[in-house]
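Chain A, query sequence.
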Amino acid sequence: MVPMIFRRVPWRWPIVAAICLIVVVPLGAQDGEPPEYAVQAPLAAKALLLDVTAVDGLLVAVGSRGHILLSEDQGQSWHQAEVPTRSGLNAVHFHDRNFGWAVGHDGVIVRTQDGGATWERVYWVPEDENPLMDVWFSSADEGFAIGAYGSFFETSDGGTTWSSRYISEDDFHLNQIVPAGGERLYIAAEAGLFYRSDDGGATWAELPTPYEGSFFGVLPLEGDSVLAFGLRGHLFRSDDAGETWTELETHTVSMLTNSFRLADGTIIITGLGGVVLKSTDGGQTFQFHQHCNRRGISAVTAATDEMLVFVGEFGVRTLPLSKLNDRKDG
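Chain A, predicted structure.
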């Protein structure tokens, strides 16, 4: 997803956090007015899209104005779902072929239980003016949504109700949450902040990093290895679960936005300006590629082992992995 940037003076608290349960919001409590549905747009597949995921032959992309697009033919064609929000959607996650959630501006969370055929709005707090940036579920019931100003929400009933708590004593934006196997989770955050949980999200530790700029993405690798990336092309690798870091060369100063690891171990990292970084040695080194139109890429997934799916300023496009053999491609 294309990250939101806010200027701040970096500061931090060296704490481990899982504190202060604030409020539980039942379904409908914040929904005093019926939702406006996203406008059906013939060119939605060419409009701004911010995230994409793949599960069991289904591709789902989300973006501006509440657009959700679905494809069941490896990205060759897309159709727009009827979605009960016009708020921009920043991220999407599917636990399996049926259960999925998308989050975005106005604190909106929408849910599907039938593979994207229908969607319902389960959370919406426009008066808070807090966009949600990412969502992840460990099961059909247990999940987290994170976002601006330290927003951290959790649910144990599939998203019907959500509770809010702080995982830190600061209010920096939480940008991406990802699993790393077992009970381990990571969060990439603003101002060089990086968090790890070793107990499934019950508690979180703030880890030291050598960078004060924002991290927008994190990609766990084998064992305790992990990549973190963000502003101005900065990419860091840790081989001890985030305790120490080494900066890697990216050959770009473009913002890095998203990542994906293919079944054969190939790593793809996307960025603004049409930037694509590719690693075939387990994330030790990266090759630089750039789309000719240089339009920003928000996210990447794979339709097949050989076919990548990109979303961004251009909407959605597919690209054979083999096309990345050249330093620049169309």
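The chain is about 0% helix and 45% strand. The radius of gyration is 18 Å.
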